[in-house]
Specification:
single chain, alpha+beta, Conserved Hypothetical Protein Mth637, Chain: A, five-stranded mixed sheet, 1 helix, 5 strands
Length: 76
């Protein structure tokens, strides 16, 4: 089963946390990493992996790899 969600990334926020805004649809990812060298995306994928209890290789950024607003596909 695939799930598509929207994630707003907030790099350099001083904490690592996923916050659900709208049930099963929209999330905010607070990230300690900077948005350089894909570090923020890697941290976001690892956080989503823990949040949804699925391996990190089941999570793909479909749109917005260089944007703060991302569309993410998760295989559950």
């Amino acid at each position: 089963m695939k799930m598509i969600i929207s994630v707003k990334a907030k790099p350099k926020s001083g904490r690592s946390e996923i916050v659900e805004i709208v049930k099963d649809k929209e999330y905010i990812a607070y990230l300690k990493a900077e948005a350089e060298n894909n570090n923020a995306n890697i941290e976001m994928i690892n956080l989503l992996s823990k949040y949804f209890n699925t391996p990190h290789f089941n999570i793909k950024v479909k749109r917005g790899k260089t944007s703060r607003n991302k569309v993410v596909e998760i295989k559950v």
